[in-house]
Design a protein that fits this description.
The protein is an all-beta fold. It has no helices and eleven strands. The strands form two sheets. Strands 2, 4, 5, 6, 9, 10 and 11 form a seven-stranded mixed β-sheet that branches. The radius of gyration is 13 Å and the shape is globular. The N and C termini lie far apart (about 40 Å).
Amino acid sequence: QVQLVESGGGSVQAGGSLRLSCAASGYTYSSYCMVWFRQAPGKEREGVAAIDIDGSTSYADSVKGRFTISQDNAENTLYLQMNSLKPEDTSMYFCAAEFWWCGGNWYEMGNYHYWGQGTQVTVSS
């Protein structure tokens, strides 16, 4: 059974940093597209960053240069390093997984069967 468990969220002031983790289990981690999404109250869930099975990465324009997605295949863990945080980054952050390549439409939530429960990130001004 596929399980994704996020951690690392919290409250931080604008300009600060956080690192989110997503511990994965129940499948061959290295064969899956892994993605971070976020959802603010009253807004649609949006793709933040993706890492493909070859290690290539993709980012939403709003986080490019500030966020870095990475993974430790040996530990089956996905990370999101978030620097220079802004109040508009405040959201619930979710990791998601789907077997095989991410593809050009990695940011579409309908592509993913497996989701974590989310971790809250709050950035104050």
